[in-house]
Amino acid sequence: MPRKADHFGIALLIFVAGAVVFGKLGFITPIFYTLFLAIGSILPAIFEPVHPYTHRNFYHSKTMMRRCCYGIGITFFLGIYSQIFMLIMFLTLGYVMHLLMDAPSGLPD
Questions:
Q1: Helix, strand, coil percent values for the chain (each to nearest 5)
Q2: 17-62: pLDDT as tens digits
Q3: Where are the alpha helices (DSSP H) in 26-61?
């Protein structure tokens, strides 16, 4: 299982990579997208801190990952009309990235 420092390191890496990529693509405010991506990547650790009996319940589950993926699809299309939906999409995308990083050690259904 990745440690807390690993999650924050990955969040920082996502933040820097996102800033570079969004800047190259010509987004006007790439800092907001990358900030929401980084915040989303640490949300599961905030919702379910690492404790033997509470870690990897609902917020670290395959069900939550499926719901987030549906949310990413919906907010992507809504983001065409409003930038707030794009920010929500990047927040959710960061959340899914965290779950994917935890996936090798197993996620509950």
A1: 75, 0, 25
A2: 766 766 666 665 667 777 888 888 888 888 887 766 655 678 788 8
A3: 30-47
Q: How many CA atoms lie within 13 A of 4 on its CB side?
A: 7
Kindly state the average pLDDT of the residues 65-75: 87
Minimal CA–CA distance to 37: which of 67, 56, 13?
13
Take residue 64 and report the two structure tokens written for it.
């939550």
CB 58 within 8 A of CB 27: no
The answer to whether the CB of 79 falls within 8 A of the CB of 26 is: no
Q: 28: buried, middle or exposed (CB in 10 Å: 19+, 13-18, 0-12)?
A: exposed
Spatial neighbors of 91 by CB under 8 A, at least 6 apart, are 36, 37, 39, 40, 43
User: For the purposes of burial, counting CB atoms within 10 Å of the CB of 11, is it exposed (0-12), middle (13-18) or buried (19 or more)?
Assistant: buried
